[in-house]
Amino acid sequence: GAGVSQSPRYKVAKRGQDVALRCDPISGHVSLFWYQQALGQGPEFLTYFQNEAQLDKSGLPSDRFFAERPEGSVSTLKIQRTQQEDSAVYLCASSFSGQGVVGTDEQFFGPGTRLTVL
Amino acid sequence: SQQGEEDPQALSIQEGENATMNCSYKTSINNLQWYRQNSGRGLVHLILIRSNEREKHSGRLRVTLDTSKKSSSLLITASRAADTASYFCASRWGVTSGSRLTFGEGTQLTVNP
């Protein structure tokens, strides 16, 4: 594809609902990252995949957050029992290189999913 | 907070003027990157500077890095109205591609025509 795509672009959820956010990385990109961006703030790291392996999930704020990338391509970020503090833009990024490559490769970001929890 | 700091938080200038944004970070880094974000859009990579570099240029952009002060600056020369956006620095401490980007809080730049 031409770039990283994310869906939906906007999601409104009632408190307590579960949501699923999708990321389609650039074809062939090994690494995939999820970031959370609160209003007026910079993005904060959530989790990282190398192919289908979730190598770092230290940024996930609670056990209500779960991410997967079962076939090493599309990834889904799931938030269970959403809370108002989960309201943010969720950004997905991918990069070509995998583990062991010097980390100067560029991360390409998707447009994000704006989640609003009422 | 895992984030660094940027200043100013907001900057308003006239078209044609130069814009300077500063960034500080907390840990040793492998490289530092600058991104632009237009309202409601994703992040666009602008420029990367490695820890062993002190200055880098790309078109109207000039980035400096001072590892002793753990700081970086982004200069946009001859600004245009289209440069209006939020600008973020992002530091990367690890050498593997799995190492995360740690973003600053951003500078909102407004270029008035």
Description:
Chain A is mainly beta and 118 residues long. Chain A is 0% helix and 47% strand. With 113 residues, chain B is an all-beta fold. Chain B has a single domain (5-94, 101-112), classed as Immunoglobulins (Immunoglobulin-like), CATH 2.60.40.10. Chain B has strands at 5-7, 10-14, 19-24, 31-37, 43-50, 55-58, 61-66, 71-76, 85-92, 102-103, 107-112. In chain B, strands 2, 4, 5, 9, 10 and 11 form a 6-stranded mixed sheet that branches. In chain B, β6 (55-58) and β7 (61-66) form a beta hairpin. The interface between A and B is medium-sized, with 36 and 30 residues.
Outline of this structure?
The complex is a heterodimer of chains A (118) and B (113). Chain A has strands at 5-7, 10-13, 19-24, 31-37, 44-50, 53-56, 65-68, 75-79, 88-95, 108-109, 113-117.
The helix content of chain A, as a percent range, equals: under 10%
Distance between the termini of chain B: 36 Å
Alpha plus pi helix count of chain A: 0
Return the domain count of chain B: 1
Q: Strand portion of chain B, in percent? A: over 45%
Structural shape of chain A: globular
